[in-house]
Structure formats: C-alpha cells, structure tokens
Structures
1.
Amino acid sequence: MALWLAHKIGCAPSNRNAVMEPSRQDVPEVVVSKTTSSDLEHDSEDDLVWVPSGSASPQVAARRMYKASTAKFDTGFRADLPAEDSEEESDASPIGSASLRATKSSEACHRVQTSQVSVPMPRVQVKIHGFWRDVAVKEAQEIGEHLARGEARFHLSARGRDYCIDFSHVGRAIQQNMATGKTRRLRILAAGSNDPWESQQPLWNQPCPREQWRLGPQSLRGDAPQNSLRHLKNSWHAQVCFRDFEEREREYCREWASFYHAYSHAALIYEVQAAIASVLFGFNAQKAPLPRLLMHDFYDIPNAGMLIHRFNSDFAESKRDHHAAFRKVALSTMCSFTAKGPELCLAKVFTSGYSCKDVPFRGVLENLLQSCGIPSERVVSLADAVVALAERHGLDTSKFGGKACESGKPGHALQIFIRRSLVDRLSYAAKPYGYVDEDRMPLSAWLNGDNPNTHGQARVIAHPEHFMQAGHVRMFVASADPTFHRKRGD
C-alpha cells in the first residue's frame, strides 16, 4: 500500500533505504537513509538521518534543505533516540556541552514569523554517545547561514577548536575535529518542535528498570482482575492477540509504559498516514499504523501540559475532548488490556472496534491528501482510489463512501509503549470526556507503581515527532479480522 500510495502522490523510493521528494514545492528535498559508515559512531539499527538528496548537487540540496526547513509545512520526521546514556567527553563538540545548558528561553528567541504562525527556527543537533544534543544557538545560526548560501562543506570554530562541517554526502552529515580527526553525526530538525529533547532530561528521577521488571507487566499489576478477558472466549484469534499484548508488556516493562487505543473506522486514516510516513520519512509501517501525521496541528499543543491547560481554559466548556483541536492531537486510551472502564472495556469492543459518530472521516482523508501536496483537482479521485484499495485489503470503508468489511470484524487495538521518562510529557490520567483524573496524577508515578489499571483512562499526545521515533514511542497493532491481521504487513 505504501508503494502504491507513493506513486499516486508523486513520490516513490529509489531503493529500500531512500525515498524521493514529493511533488509539493515547499517540502524540503530530502531522503531518509540509514548510515553504516564504519568511521562514524555506532548508531542504533533503526536510527534515521535527514540528509540532502543525491539527485541534486550538494550546494543546491544544502540550500533547499535549510531554507525549506524554515518554512511552515505539514509533515515531520524524527530519528530514533537510543535508550542508553553516558558521560560527556571533554572533547565532545562545539555543540554538545553547550547544548546541555540550553533552555526553553534560548529556543524561544530563535524563531521566524510566517503568515500563519510563529514557528521555531530549524534546530541543528549532534550525536554524542548515542544521544542527539542541540547545538548552541550561536553555532546553529552560523551553520544555518552557510547552508542557506548553498555551502555544504565549511569550517567552524567553537570553544577554541576548529571543526569541518560536512553536509555533502548522502546519509553522512558530520562534524570533524580538525585536530583529533574525531567524527560525529549531525542533523537538522524541521521547524515546529517546541519541546525540549528527552536526551536533555535529568535521569536521577527516573524509575529503576530492575524494579519495573520485578513489578512485571503493567496490566497485571496491583492484583488486577482478569475477568474482562472472558469476552474473548469465543475467538481464538483474539485470545492470541491479547496474549501477545501481555508478552510485549513483559518484554518492555523495564523502560516503557503501555497504553491501548481501540478504533475501527479510523483505521483507513491511520494506515494512509503510516504509508505516507513510510515513504517520506522511513517510518516502520510494518508493525503499526500512525495515528497522527500533520506537524502543524501540534504547534499550539505540543505536550500534555499544554493540552491540560487548553482543556481547562477552552475545551471543558466547548465539546470537551470532542473539540476539533483536541482530537487533532490526542488519543483516548486505556492503561491496561484488561481495562473494564469507564466507558470502554477493551476486550469487549475488540471485535467491533470503537469510534466516534460525529467524525467526517471522508473529509479528514481528503484534507490529509491535500496537506501532503496533492493538487485539489486530484484529491477526490485519489481518495476514491484509496478507499477502493482499502476495501480490497479488508478494511471497513463504510464511513468513506465505501463498504463495510466482509468479516464483520472492523475492530483494531493499538498497543502503544511510551518511554517512562516521556509519559508525563505525552499523556495524562483522564476521566471520561478528557477531564483530568487528579487521583492518578502524575500518571508516570501511578504507572511506575504496583497499581491496578483496570479502571481509568488516559489521553495521549500522538505527536509525530515522538511517534515516529522508536526510541520514544513503539507501537504494535492487533486487528480483529484474522485475515487482515495476518496480511497487514505484506
């Protein structure tokens, strides 16, 4: 589906490790590529880098990359953040030690104005011991000025050291210490990220992985009752799916908290977004769909704290979590696959799925395609083709002008793992309709303890800059239709 959609949109991967740029003019000329050069630091296997396309000269690509990344555009990419941390080296970079002192105030002054919204300038980062660190603002500006002039290779002096900065090779944006020859990876982040990075967060207040392993799977903690699983007794396939949920929780419980999002009609939207992200940004769509893709939806609500603020000030008196701005950024979730409520029992709704009745699904699909640069005259015909393709693969398209799925089992459950140090940034404990559940706040402390999670909801910020990073969020999907579930990754 990803390849088919790529050709329809106007972009297609030239090989398994790279993708061509879409036809939209304001999207930067980029590829997503894996770096395996032996002279670079070891990287995690699913780490991605944003680099100039090899289809143009390095100078043209560098200029386009930087200038386009300062513009407002609708999609984002991210690279993986590895799980391990270590001490800084004194020789680190022009970059690393200064970035550790960076604060939100330094980011706030580094902005440009567009006609629609104030957007942060692109951020330059260096990879030190497996973690991406922000370059100090002064050095970032200097790097940006060189790239904006089309200079893909240049020299930079910082902290008494001379560096060669090189963006001229596909998949190998680097800095090199001219005295020692030490090489480090560089990358430029798209505009639109207001959040400080996980790599800059203190580690002393994080839960002990050994203790989390002792407590075991989140859904089984606190002697949580398992009687909700009786709803699965007539479906061997559903039982297998929920056993997989448990095994993954057991595997990931050291460093990850788990959430469950039930859905049905939204599956087509999620799959299309995953296909687009797979082609453009190297997102691994084989394991799960992508619930949100458009970066600009998150400019005003980048984290859970801001979502709570907006809910209390605006949404509580106007549609609550059904407000359009809330829906654009947040998912309704449960914190256990044995959850019985309120409102939703995951095991009970697994087959039929869960969906809001007032969502204009067809309009959402067409707006998504148009946001990706599809000419307006082609949007309707492409949407029709997407719906027809989804029908052939067994998805329920009845809300898109298509047919209901033949199996009569349109339900899906998305298992979401969020790194424990990111839980409070990306989620909050909720009551029905999105009100904050103060008894379980902060949610990270509740989920880190030996507490039952059979009762209680959560709202999760599905920010694509985190959801497309395997080091921040990992997802797995289970579909009630056994055939679709088995063939989904084909």
2.
Amino acid sequence: GRQAPLPLQKRSHIGSAAAVASAPSLLRHSLSHMLLLCVAGAPALSMAPLETPPPSLFPDIWWPQAPPRASRANHTVRRLAWDGGSSCSSGTCTFDCAIANHIAQEAAAPGYYYAQAHGGLAESAARQPLRSTWEPLLESVRGCNGLQPGELLEYSFLVVLDGSWVAHYEQQRRAYATQGYASLEASALMVFDRVSYLFERQFGIRVKAARVEAFPGLTEKCAANNGYAEDGARDASNTRAALAARGVTDAAGVSGGIVRLGVGAADGTTYCHSYAPLHGVCSGSGGSVERLALQVTQRNPFGAGGRINQQAIRVLAHEMGHVFGICSSRGALECQNAHTEIHIPDLMVWDGRPAANVRSFGMFYKFMTTCATVYDNILCAAARRERASCAVPLTCSNGGVDCTPHHWVAAGGGGGGVTRAAHREELHAVRCCADEPDGRAACASANLGGLVTAGNQNGRKELGTNSRKGPDRPTPDTRPTLPTRRRADGSMPVRG
C-alpha cells in the first residue's frame, strides 16, 4: 500500500546544524515504489507513483536568517581541506565542495538576494529577470548536449493546467501580466521560462511548453488519495482521461512528456505532492499521448503581494531533474533515495535541512554540477543519447539559435564606455560591439547603434539585450551566454 511520509519537525527544531544532526531518521523507501510504479497490463506510466516525497520538497523548510559571520570564518578554514573534487570524490561525502561553492558565490556576488532567505519569495512584485530565481553562479557542464557552445537541445512538453491552476490564474491575472504573461495559456510559460533558463545555462538544454491545454474541470483528490492529485482511475482528476476526452491523443511535437501544473488542494489545507518518473523524458515520444510520462507539480507560483514564489519554480526544476534521470542507481555514492546525497545540497537533494552546515538559509537553487558527477554521467549522457531521437538540436547552422555578436551594456545607458557583457535576459540599453584579438570590445560608435526602447527613448531600461556570449556575473567557466528566445507575448527583443 501507499506509505505516508513521517511528519517533519517544526521549523524551530531544525534551525541549527546540531538540531539537524540529532533529528530522527526519515522514512525510508525502496526503489520499487520510489518514483514509478509499473503495473502489468496497464498502460505505461498511467498511475501516480508510490513515492515518499523527499523532505526537500516540503514548503516549510526555510532558514530565514542571514549566515552568521562566524560561520563564514569557519567555512574558510574548512575549505582548506577541500581538494577541488566533487562532494564524494574522496570516497566519503562531505560538505567541503558545497562550502567552497558558497564562498565563491559570496565573492562573486556580494549582497545577492537569495529567495531561500526570504520565505522563497522574489525581492519585489515588480517584473523579475529569469536569473533571479537561481543562484548567482550557474556552472555549466561542458559538452553536455554534444553540440557547440551556445547551441541547444530542445525538449518539448505537453502542459496541462488543472482546475486549481485555472482558478488561481483568474485571481492572479495582474501578477502574471506584470511578469509579461498576459493569458491563461501563457501563465504556464512563467514557470517554464525560468526552469528552461536554468537548464540552458547549466546543460545547454531547452525545456519548452510546446502545447498548453487548460482544463477548468480537471480536479484533484489529494485529500482522499494520500496527497496525490490523481491515480490510475479514469475519473475527473485523471490527466490522460481529460486529454483523451478533448481529442488530444497524438504525441507528435511533445517528445518530452506531459507536465500537469496545479496549485494544490481545493480545501486549502491538504498538502499535494509533486512527483515525476525517473528517466521519463522521451518515453513514448512520437506515438500516443497515453504513453507519455506524466510529471505533476502542485505549488502556487505567487506569494503575498504578487511576489513570485521561487520555491514553486524550484519544484518544477526538481521534477525535470528526475525525468532526465537524476538520481538513478548509476550515481552510486552521490545518490540517496533517488535524489542527490545530503552533502550535495542542490535542487535534487533528498533532505535540504543539513544544508545548514553550509549556510544558514539552506539548500542551493541550482544543480551543483561541480560537486556531483551524476549530472555529466547521467543527465548529459542521456541528453546526448536522445539527440537523434526525440530532442531537436537548435544550432547556428540550422537557424535554431541566434548567433549574432556580443551586446555590451553602456555605462549610463548612452555615450559612456562599455562596462560589461549583458546577459540575454537583462533589460538595459546596449551598444553593438565586436571582439578584438585581445578579447576586449571595440565599439563602432559612441551612441546606442540606432537602437531605441519601447518608449522610443535611447538609454532607457526597457530594451531587451540579445547576448550570446559573456556571463552577466563572474563565473568559474567561460561558456557563452545562450541566445535570445522569443518573449512570452510573441515579440522578439530589439537587436542592433
């Protein structure tokens, strides 16, 4: 039968590393019911998995206070023992790699706003750049997709908005419009664009909501189904039944799988689990929708005052990590209960609470590619295998990506000197420049290259950049910034 997770300790009990160390063991579960249940005679992936959700996905795991200075000093001393390898490279997993990573982030981005330290909420209700959901340093896995730097592998998904999401959108129309998503169908892109930003930066993988279907009548039964929105019954809560009734049966163009988005139980109190099948991407692609893998995310993407709930974006990224194979038994020492081991406190971690040993506000909102080999050995290996089947390469030669030169931010917005490379999602006035042999930028003119903003005024911050190269913050690697994508409203950023 389905197992229920043990109740977690209250926040006051887990605010210190000592408390974490003394916490009772969590409920363990076997691989046979961790992420996916296969039933003889049933359509593949048709039933909700019998999964004990990891503690890292529960919404109440926060350390809202800033890291104490003494802790940072201790981390500096402990860093001396770090050999530059992954968290488990010595044969015993430690926090040394994670500590070194956080120290590097503090040095590269002092004063950075970490949502984890603020209840998971964005800094304000104003329009937020895609990068604001994640950590300031997003280390890439070189050659992950088997293409040239800056080129992408695109995986397309069929997105289903259940009744809870539809009702939620009607209440949050203004908040979605503020973020640039002005319709019910486009609301799905608010979370997808942010997750794709992370996958593009770290793996050269684009996750695309190729088709969005909204179902006001698609219910959930979390209260009666041990926290799961649906099961194998073909009733009003069943995603595949709803798609079939609408005639959505052909999986062509949605190779990645099905993603059901909701915001939780109708009673407002029952916790609804999010879950996904391990290695689910591309299973059943090119055939029937009935055979596509289904992942479910049940989390409200907005919090108080219309601020983005970054934790909801994190949950979707976590489930995407599962469908790309993290963390299968091939990860051995780095995997714990089909998640990353607790000393790798990233998006895929089994239990994020011990991350207090690294920093007081908890786990990292990124994939810790420098602290774990599973991303290269499992996720990237799978991506390279799928290149010839269900994924679509987006390259310079086939026009799938825009391979224009750098754009550089002009100091003061106009006429000043070049200050730094601008990331593609940053909204700044830009100047069109070219590389010189020494790697510096030579600007063709002292103006903005003829570019104008939406308000027809040079130097304003409404102008979208189109940067292929150069990270927006110092990073340990020099992978080119990824090319510009079409905005949610269908328009393209102005280019010089």
